[in-house]
């Protein structure tokens, strides 16, 4: 059943008005009729099976039939702080990160980021990003759309990081040479409802200065397997591992 | 240090001749000089630090200085059998799957595959695929380049599957409704050097007939986390989880 995220303002009790792209999708793409069922997600994270009660050119009305009891969200809130990557890699990180359960994305201007996200174009860029995570949330049957915040500096990220329970950065060199906590060791101590901040460098990795600052501020350096991952693959490895450990191993009733 | 996979024929004892694209990369892209060091991978899976002894217009000679002791390969051999997906998704599966440690890829014609890989164009396609996995192997510092086989049918895959120790297919519906082995349960019983076959459906998933045949032939249905993953994300989730379990949890010395 197709799933739509409906803004709070369009819920009147158990009656929903669906407009814009979603109405277009229901009417023109899915060619739904009155009586057909869809899933509507509320911003509070709940989802309801709804029946279409009327359609016209650009608005669809639906009524809640039943609220769904689902556990499709990771038991923890994972934020991906990603060093600005080149090209359209951030699109891939958003789409795959959403499928894999991330709750928040922070683009971070780092020393070795080659691209600069132009201030004048940032509004248009953010609108595109919002569309990517909304569509990926619908496709993967998530109950929450991840948040994307405006780009920040490493100093701002460190300031922000006081709000997190567990802070990790993918830094192979560090993980190799010094006594360190392994990624699996850290994950095995995570408990439900904790906030996890995972920081990934851009193509060239973290500068030594950045790595030093992150360490001084409570970030643990980890390796994500023994192979060298591209910047856009690192967060996907980490999210899949978190899901596997918390949702598959811990949820394993063999 | 840059890494190159050198065909067996170009090794004469500890002397190596580097030709073609690799020579072009060393001379024109990296602008290496005599005396510079590179890593050369032998087809047997070993890698050597080598010193460039001469360069001319289109050939580079190098000599082995030291063989490297590396463990960057997964302790098991994972084959991804992927239902033919649309567009250029198979490119992404090959690139990311190689980074994440896959050893073999089998494209499989499935009931719900929408695309047909044209017989006349398959040679060109395979050449492009080979290039993707070679470059991804070099980039991720692997010692082995994954093998890509020609597309086969599900019947041929089942015939081929007798060579594997563990057979899994990602089939959410099955994993939901019946008594089943969890993915984590299966992974926790895998031992080093086993051959694992992981089968992923195309965009529309497996047909009931395909799922039935796979089950009858010893494939275990598993879910890969509670969210719905796109076809190109499923193998990445599974490979990251296998790496996390076998290389990070089992290799965890906290």
UniProtKB/TrEMBL annotation, chains A, B:
Gene3D superfamilies: 3.40.1280.10, Hypothetical PUA domain-like, domain 1 (2.40.240.20). One of its GO terms (cellular component) is cytoplasm. It is found in: Cytoplasm. The keyword Nucleotide-binding does not apply. InterPro entries: Alpha/beta_knot_MTases, PUA-like_sf, RsmE, RsmE_MTase_dom, RsmE_PUA-like, tRNA_m1G_MTases_N. Residues 18-62 form the Ribosomal RNA small subunit methyltransferase E PUA-like domain. One of its GO terms (biological process) is rRNA base methylation. It comes from the Bacteria. Its main location: cytoplasm. Pfam families: Methyltrans_RNA (PF04452), PUA_4 (PF20260). Residues 73-242 form the Ribosomal RNA small subunit methyltransferase E methyltransferase domain. It catalyses: uridine(1498) in 16S rRNA + S-adenosyl-L-methionine = N(3)-methyluridine(1498) in 16S rRNA + S-adenosyl-L-homocysteine + H(+). GO terms for molecular function: rRNA (uridine-N3-)-methyltransferase activity. Its EC number is 2.1.1.193. Keywords: Cytoplasm, Methyltransferase, rRNA processing, S-adenosyl-L-methionine, Transferase. Belongs to the RNA methyltransferase RsmE family. Specifically methylates the N3 position of the uracil ring of uridine 1498 (m3U1498) in 16S rRNA. Acts on the fully assembled 30S ribosomal subunit. This is Ribosomal RNA small subunit methyltransferase E. It comes from Oceanobacillus zhaokaii.
